[in-house]
Structures are given as structure tokens and as C-alpha cells.
User: Fold these one by one.
Assistant:
Number 1:
Amino acid sequence: MRARIVVLAASACESARILLNSRSSQFPQGLANSSGMVGKYVTDTTGTDVAGFIPMMTDHVPHNEEGVGGMHLYMPWWLDNRKLDFPRGYHIEVWGGLGPPQAGFMGGIQRYPGAGGYGVKLKNDYRKFYGATIGFSGRGEMIPNEDSYCELDPRVVDQYGIPVLRFHWKWSDHEYLQSKHMQETFRALVAEMGGEVFSPMPSKERGYGLSTGGSIIHELGAVRMGKDPRTSVLNANCQAHDCRNLFVADGGPFVSQADKNPTWTILALAWRTSDYITEQRKQGAL
Amino acid sequence: MSEHDAGLPMADGPTEAAGAPPIPLAAEPADVSRRDLVKLLGMAPLAGALDWSQVTVERAARMVRALQPVDGEQPAAYKPKFFTPREWRTVRVLADYVIPRDERSGSATDAKAPEWMDFMLSEPETSDNSRLAMRGGLAWLDVECRRRFAQPFVGASDAQRRQVLDDIAWPDRARPEMSYGVAFFNRFRDLTAAAFFSSQMGWQDLQYMGHTFVPEWQGCPPAALQKLGVSYDLMNTRVGIQR
């Protein structure tokens, strides 16, 4: 298939994979990769969670309620970084309430005070403790770094015979200390409500409970934009420095990411890129 | 949590944080998959618990509903896909020790909890480790009962069965040599409770009242506010303050 203009929007890492697999004598390192930056500076949202049992909420009053999630209650970043030991910030999503009982319902009942066992008392404990849990999920900003990247796996291919990516990840103290702050904050909130946290504070060795890179599934970067063609793949219009009729319109162009979900920003950038393409076409420049 | 309901290891939501296992769950949360929400609301399940997508959970619910009699007519008997006939007998007895019938609702088998568990364990999404843990745990239970009473669990008397259950149902006071039984029972209890309380019988038992049309939103009922010592007054006072 031949096209005048090619727009890649396969998702951040997949677009990088397509570029890296598009090697030719003209582009021996992969298409649009003279900088060697394709696949580099992948970022994800940081995350950690704490849930607690709130005694005051036991033996709930039945009423029409579906439980509360991050869509209902959301706390934006509220602190001044000059007084903190990490840059940037995070938001908090709050969970709890009388959600529909489903698979996973009140797993780990033995962790509630005096609960466990079997039989009628156990059955009563489920009734008593239903809805008496509140959870906090912190979702924060990572500082992109050069140790977090993807590249073609030299041995593994997919079912079509096309080489797949392999990933390398390294959080820095920026993220670990942010996670520590989340953990301490959420534990303080549970304590303030007279509650009890279900698990001990994760140690430094456990990374203060920081999620595994990629597990919050907000992977961005890998085809980043920038002014300098030596350190970036795309220009400010998401147009490849090396190849003016090639654009990337997904999470790939991101240089960093805010703590919030990236979808709307991906849409905004794609819109902007579309406008640019239209304008360039009208001028006969593309 | 995002926008997707992707596979288990992907948790846009609460993850392996607090020293506890993955906690995810939700009703279209901003950043947590539905499954994540489900787990979080229920509190993080212990060790490797549930790895099922919403689709699978809903299929299981439909399957269980289809086992209920329609107009007095019994549907065809359920044929276990995961459990062997011998395991099936054990599971049915054991599940009713976990959730027995009482004045408010029926038992685990009344709610078709064993059928739900069998369905889930036979799903490809279920990890081999989970399957192994269930099979091995049931075998452990029989070995332990034979050691003590020269009878498998099903063949033991009620008092004998309770003797073994009392040794494994309370993790905090269980003797160290009971650790395998404790791990198995924690998991079995979680599964039985999930099966029972996610059924229609379980929803009625818990007086779950969501999923119903609200013609006029009147806020949280006064009794529920009172219980927590909160009110809408603060919010209402603030509205006029700067006039």
C-alpha cells in the first residue's frame, strides 16, 4: 500500500515497535530513528494503594448505593513541592461503599478483627463488615529516565513472525519517595477515620509499595517529540524529524505525563496534528 | 484505571501495593479496571486470589441463574468440569460448613456455590497455580482426616470434621504444622463467600439495593448519615456564605 502521508497511531510502544521493525538501507536503525531515540524514555503513572477497615461503618444501614470509585471522588494534588523530598505530585482516588457483591467479595475476611472461622458466625461477619472498607489509590507523575525503555527483542517474534519488544525499567528515588508519601498519607487518613490498615507499611526494600513499571497501563513516550532531532523523534507537530510525511498520533510523542489519565491529551495532540496536516496539505507543503 | 478492562496482570487500578496482593476494582472508575474495583471493594484478596475478567464473572452468574428451577421445572443436573466426582462430594460438604443455612438465607449449595467455583476453576483465565492449590488443598484435607480418623473428610463425623476445620479456619491461632490447611481454607472460604454472596440469594441476604432505578435522588438516607455522625448541613451552609 502506498500513501502520501502515513500516520502511526498504534499505541505508544507499538508505534515504536513498527518503526524499529521498519529497517531499510535508508533507515538502518529503523524508520525515523537516526537519533536512536525510538523506544526510549517510556513512562508510566506511579501507583500505590492502601485499604483500611473503618469500624464506624460496620453494620451498615441498607440503602440504594453502588459503591464509590475513582470516578466519583478524586483529590487533585494539593502540596507544595518545595517542602517535599520528591518532585511533581499525585492525585488520590477513593474507593469503598456498598458495591455489588461479586467475584472477590470480601476476600481475606480473616483479616478483619475477630473474623475467620466458618459457619453462622462467619456468615454474620460478612454481613457486618460489608461496606466497612475504604481504599485510597495514589496515581502520580514519573520523571522519565533513560533507563526505562523498550527495544526489539533479538530472539522473540509474535505469531506473524514479527520481532516483539522487550522492556527495561528503573524507578528513581523521585518515584520511590513519592510512593512513600502516598503510603504515609493514606495510612494517616485511615487512622484519622478511626480505622485499621490491613497491611504493614511497605519497607524501602519493597520500594514503599510502588507499582511495577507498566502496571498502571499508562505507557507513554517511546517516540518522543522535541526541538532537537538528535534527542527526539518528532517535532512539535508530531511529525518525524527524519521523514516529513510520517506522523505519530498516540501516546508515543509524550515527553512526560501528568498524574492524570492520558487519553484526553492523546486526543488533543492527535487533533492538533490533524489540523497541521490539513494546513500543510492546503499549502501544498505535504 | 482506565479505560479498559484489560487482563489480570494489568491493573490500572490499585496494584500490588500495601504488602497485600493486587487490590483492584470498579464501577468505571477513572483509573481502575472493573475487576480492580471489585477486588478493592472487597478488600485485597490474599495470595494470588482472583484473576477473572468481568466477562467471565458475568458468564458465571448467568450459568448459576440457569441452574435455578423455572416454573417448578428443574434444569438438567450440573456436570462438574473441574472437580473429580470425589472432589465434588467434598466441596459440597465443605462449602456448607463455610456458609450454612440460617434464618436469613440458604446455604452455599442452595446458592449453587460449588457450581460457580467449578465453572471458575475450569476457565482458561484461572491460573494453573490456583487450580493446583484447590486440588492439592482438597487432597490435604482428606489426608489429614484419614490420618486422624481413618476416613476421608466426607466419611468423617460432624464432630470430626469440625475438629479439623477448627485447626485451619483461624490463621492467627493455627499451629505451624497446619499451615497448608490454613492456606487452603483461606482460599476456599474466599471462593465460597464470593460464590454465595454474588448470587441472587447473596444479594438479598446482604440487602444489596443497587442496580435499581432512582426516580428522584434525595441523597443518602438520614439513618445512614446519622450512623456516621455526618450531615449535609455543612455543604448547605457553605453555599450562601460569600453573599
Note: Residues 1-49, 239-243 of chain B have pLDDT under 50 and may be disordered.
Number 2:
Amino acid sequence: MAEPMKIRATLKGDLADIRVLMVHPMETGLRKDANGNIVPMHFIQEIAVRLNGRVMLEGQISQAVSRNPVFSFRLKGVKAGDKLEIAWLDNHGERNQSVTAIA
Amino acid sequence: MLKAAGAFAAGLFVPLRALAAGWNKDAFQSKTAADALKSLGATSSAESKDIVIEAPQIAENGAVVPVEISSSLPDTKSIAVVIEKNPFPLAARFDFADGAVPYVKVNVKMGESSVVRVVAEAGGRHYSASREVKVTIGGCGG
């Protein structure tokens, strides 16, 4: 099972500044290991951000996103206690989801 | 401080793909920026100053290049990030529902110095802006 994401949400009025760190190798398929073998592609392809169950934002990403991706997003109309869910799916079909309450 | 958020079992996973039709294979596997944009349905776009790209002029490490994008175009629905000289130029595409600010910050890999082009879809039309980023050490193989 993938490591949990780290999510930080800062609320200013009703604007939430969301920062999420996803632990993932984001292998491009171009890198070689110490023995000269190509490391196969392994990268997150889709991400989704939901607020109180409603999809607010979706992302499709390539292997060009850096290892252990960090994203910042902004949502309006947010209040303390709202439920924030972030999910990802990678090219191996592995997935991960984290849920946090906006403080 | 970042705090660890609770992880849920796969069975509780809410399906993705409410706004977009899933990972656009054709667009992401395109080897030229023009082909990638064509696969996204954005063959032509008008240059716009309402799209702002923050990125370093010189990136010493191509493995981690921070790119911050915001659009003040009314009704911005999506933003695509294209790194023209990368082996697969399309790096990311984001779809925004009402309530999401058309803003994103993401770290990307750049194989060499390149134009970073952002194409936003707003009010049924495409708009673009670009920035040149010089890379000292490429980040695609490492």
C-alpha cells in the first residue's frame, strides 16, 4: 500500500490554499539503474480533489512531474470542518486516497 | 508543517473522472507539442496576458522545476502544461469545476532548456502563454 499523502490546507476567508505531497517514484522509463538496466515507467496519471464529496479539480499528469509530486491548488467557498479528499491513480493501477478536515 | 492525512482502503475509493474522460493517452504519448495540443483539441490558441506563468528563468536542476500557473480568463475550465523540448511534451492537464480557482503549482522535470507553454480553455476557446526556462542539468534520465 502506498504511503499516505501529506496534505496542508490553509484557510483565508473562504479561500483554501491546499498543498499536497504524494510519495511516488515518478519513473520516466528513461532512467537506468546502477546495473545499466532501464527502470520501467511508473508514474501517477490521474489525481482528483473533492470537497464534501464534490469533485472540484482533476488532473492528468505525465512522467514529467517530479518525483514525490507536490501540488498546490486553491478552492473557494470553503469553511472550517469541510471534508477534503485527494486521490491518485498510477499507470500500474495502484491508487491512494487521503481524507482530511479543513481546520 | 505538513501533517499526515488518514489513508483509506482501496474499497472506499471514490471513482475519478467526473470532469475529464481519464488519462488522455494520445495526448500524453505525443512526441511533439503540436501533436499533444491537437489531441487535446487545442490546435489553435490566442496569446493571452491573462495567463500568468511563474517559473525560474534558469533552473539549475531539471529534475525539479517549480511552475506556478494562474488564469484570470473568465470561465477557465482547464489548463494544460506543455514542455516543448521534453521527449513527451505534455506534462499535465488540470480540469477545474466551479469553486476551484484556475491555479496550480507543480514541480516538473525538464530534459533541456525549453519553452514552457500553458494552454487554458475558457469560454469554449483556447488561450496560451509561454515562458522560456533554461536548464543547467537535465532531469529526465535522473
Note: The two ends of chain A are 27 Å apart (CA to CA).
